[in-house]
Amino acid sequence: MSKKALFLDRDGVINRDHGYTYKLEHLELLDGVIEGLQAISKLDFQIIIITNQSGIARGLFSINDLHIFMQGLISELSDHKIHITDYFFCPHYPDGKITEYSKVCSCRKPEPGMLFQAKEKYSLDFSKSILIGDNETDIRAADNANLFSTILINNSGNPVNTSAANEAKNLIGASEIIKRYNT
Asked: Is the pLDDT at 183 greater than 70, yes or no?
């Protein structure tokens, strides 16, 4: 039986984006993350983080640094009874300094590669899956994968031009939108 997924971008959705955030001492959860994810956790979604991490290709941090940060983030959420099924990341950037990762790929959002990797690994049903992001590249990746719906996190209070099906100020607002889908 296929499962539904909630795909979350990381920086700017879960944690404050400090620009190439990879050090645990810079892990700062955004307002509403705990409450929003706790509410979503009750709705039978596989919660999966998908994140572009071009800092790896740029030589700013290593894949090991990323894994350490992600384990710290997942542990912090777990302390609040929030289960993250998995995370997928794209280390690529076409103009990077690290040759191995300096390329155009199918996983860097807005390409849907990370979504398809998760779908294959967890037998996910995209017709019931939702993506929450803070950037139009996140929304386009979801559209490119034909996900059920999208939510753009816009905490600026300013109008934005987006193709997202919904907008929310934070993950609490996003959880309220998702609850309406599940009634």
From this structure: no
Instruction: Please tell me the total count of domains within the chain.
Output: 1
**Domain annotation covers residue 75:** yes
H-helix segments, 27-170: 33-41, 63-78, 113-122, 136-144
β-sheet bridge partners, residue 85: none
Structure tokens at 93: 């950037």
Q: How far apart are CA 175 and CA 35, in angstroms?
A: 9
Q: Tell whether 133 is covered by a domain.
A: no
Residue 178 pLDDT grade (very low, low, confident, very high; cuts 50, 70, 90): very high
C-alpha distances in Å from residue 37, one per residue of 3, 91, 102, 136 = 18, 26, 34, 22
Flag whether 85 is in a domain: yes
d(CA 129, CA 12): 20
pLDDT tens for 118-173 read 999 999 999 999 999 999 999 999 999 999 999 999 988 788 899 999 999 999 99
**Domain of 116: which CATH number?**
3.40.50.1000
**Would you say residue 162 lies in a domain?**
no
Domain holding 46, by residue range, is 5-128+140-149+167-181
pTM over 0.85: yes
Strand blocks (E) in the chain: 5-8, 46-52, 86-90, 130-133, 149-153, 166-168
